[in-house]
């Protein structure tokens, strides 16, 4: 640092020169200070721009992260739907061909072991026989043919006569293939010799009066097609093996006529269902093949199912086949009906809820499915926590089904005591975690699905006549899902409606 001179030693001219230099330095410093301030302002502006740019980049990164999470979720969900298990949980009913092959192999090995041990009497062999499960008894309602096996001679080798002291009975399950037989209706002709009056008994009424098919045969054809899902061409091959040649056009004619005759019965059953105050509703697509020069492409139709609950003494389901998924079809079917409708969140039912005559009952299975999809695709810890709480609710319902007192009031009291605390815990959990996850993430959407429908989802707690979910209706759609794999499509809107009437009664 430059030392200042001793001013007392300077002359007048030196002081003037020193003052001039100080003024110049002050001016230079002032100019430098202005430049620094200007540069500082520019830097502040750049910092502000960088901060804004950084915020924008952070937002973009967050957006891309959420978008990437969404795509990963959708990709994993696609892989799960394409290659994974189709059900949310495995049950004893899910028997695959591989399982059947394993059981067949086990049976073959058991037989080989039995043959190897046929001449052995050691303790291990006897213990193995004792541990083998007992065969289930054949039901008593089966027609029984008794075949007796007695000795050809009752004379003993010692010369005495044998005396019968009892018997051992073993049963075999027999099968007799379906048999056709001819039923002749003979109507005698009676005449009066005096007045020539001719009398003859009239034939009883049949579904097809002048046809060859009996009611039993018509029922078999209908059940084979719509319950066992055997197309008519397959049925024809089966009948040919029995020596009966029925053309496919003949079988089609029978089904068409039966559909017309059975429609009043289906309509009567519909009125019975509409008298119930709790109804399930669901819908599933079925392809319609449209005939005509200008209608070469198939159209997607829908079959709607309206079913009574599992608690109702009247067990029935009405199928309503329509050419679209428009909510107008549900509006027309339920026109004038009042009660609780158990359904998913499809908007087609919303018009009935707005009127106030119909009260929505939500489907816990759909809420669970949202978290299950997250769990199997992303292994989300949050989803697993929700699934565990929902699993408790279903465990309570399983316990309820075991109770001897199956009244609605008992179900309501039991749910209030056991299910209500779990539902409250789930509700608080949903609200808590909804605030901690990105609003557009799959997890937030799963949580929001339940929160938006919470009044409908929790309604079953206050009424023992209401179910926890809509699985009862979804299960009633399985015949249509199986049918699609066999007959693939409905030939027309009319044939779809005919199939709906027949399957309603079957």
From TrEMBL:
Residues 71-147 form the Transposase TnpC homeodomain domain. Keywords: Coiled coil. Residues 154-196 form the Transposase IS66 zinc-finger binding domain. Residues 26-74 form a coiled coil. It comes from the Bacteria. Residues 210-497 form the Transposase IS66 central domain. Pfam families: DDE_Tnp_IS66 (PF03050), LZ_Tnp_IS66 (PF13007), zf-IS66 (PF13005). This is Transposase component. It comes from Acinetobacter johnsonii.
């Amino acid at each position: 640092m430059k030392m200042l001179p001793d001013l007392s030693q300077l002359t007048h001219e030196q002081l003037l020169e020193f003052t001039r230099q100080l003024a110049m330095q002050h001016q230079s410093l002032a100019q430098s200070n202005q430049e620094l301030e200007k540069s500082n302002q520019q830097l502040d502006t750049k910092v502000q721009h960088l901060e804004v740019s950084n915020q924008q980049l952070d937002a973009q990164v967050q957006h891309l992260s959420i978008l990437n999470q969404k795509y990963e979720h959708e990709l994993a969900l696609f892989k799960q739907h394409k290659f994974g298990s189709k059900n949310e949980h495995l049950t004893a009913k899910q028997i695959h061909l591989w399982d059947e092959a394993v059981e067949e192999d086990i049976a073959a090995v058991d037989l080989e072991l039995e043959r190897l041990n046929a001449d052995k009497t050691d303790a291990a062999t006897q213990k193995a026989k004792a541990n083998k499960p007992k065969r289930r008894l054949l039901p008593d309602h089966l027609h029984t043919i008794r075949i007796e096996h007695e000795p050809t001679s009752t004379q003993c080798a010692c010369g005495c006569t044998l005396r019968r002291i009892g018997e051992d009975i073993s049963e075999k399950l027999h099968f007799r293939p379906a048999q056709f037989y001819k039923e002749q209706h003979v109507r005698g002709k009676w005449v009066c010799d005096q007045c020539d009056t001719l009398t003859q008994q009239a034939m009883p009424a049949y579904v097809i009066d002048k046809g060859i098919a009996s009611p039993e045969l018509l029922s078999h054809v209908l059940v084979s097609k719509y319950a066992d899902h055997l197309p008519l061409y397959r049925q024809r091959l089966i009948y040919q093996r029995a020596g009966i040649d029925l053309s496919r056009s003949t079988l089609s004619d029978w089904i068409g006529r039966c559909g017309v005759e059975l429609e009043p019965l289906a309509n009567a059953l519909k009125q019975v269902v509409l008298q119930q105050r709790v109804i399930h509703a669901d819908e599933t697509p079925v392809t319609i093949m449209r005939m005509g020069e200008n209608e070469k492409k198939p159209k997607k139709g829908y079959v709607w199912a309206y079913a009574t609950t599992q608690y109702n003494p009247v067990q029935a389901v009405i199928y309503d086949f329509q050419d679209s998924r428009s909510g107008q079809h549900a509006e027309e079917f339920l026109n004038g009906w009042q009660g609780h409708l158990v359904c998913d969140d499809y908007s087609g039912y919303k018009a009935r809820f707005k009127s106030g005559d119909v009260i929505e009952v939500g489907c816990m299975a759909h809420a669970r499915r949202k978290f299950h999809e997250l769990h199997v695709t992303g292994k989300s810890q949050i989803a697993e926590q929700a699934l565990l709480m929902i699993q408790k609710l279903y465990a309570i319902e399983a316990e309820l089904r075991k109770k001897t007192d199956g009244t609605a009031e008992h179900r309501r009291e039991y749910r209030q005591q056991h299910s209500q605390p779990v539902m409250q815990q789930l509700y608080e959990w949903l609200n808590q975690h909804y605030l901690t996850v990105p609003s557009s993430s799959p997890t937030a959407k799963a949580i929001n699905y339940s929160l938006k429908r919470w009044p409908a989802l929790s309604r079953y707690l206050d009424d023992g006549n209401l179910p926890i979910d809509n699985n009862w209706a979804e299960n009633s759609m399985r015949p249509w899902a199986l049918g699609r794999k066999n007959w693939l499509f409905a030939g027309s809107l009319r044939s779809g409606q005919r199939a709906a009437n027949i399957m309603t009664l079957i």
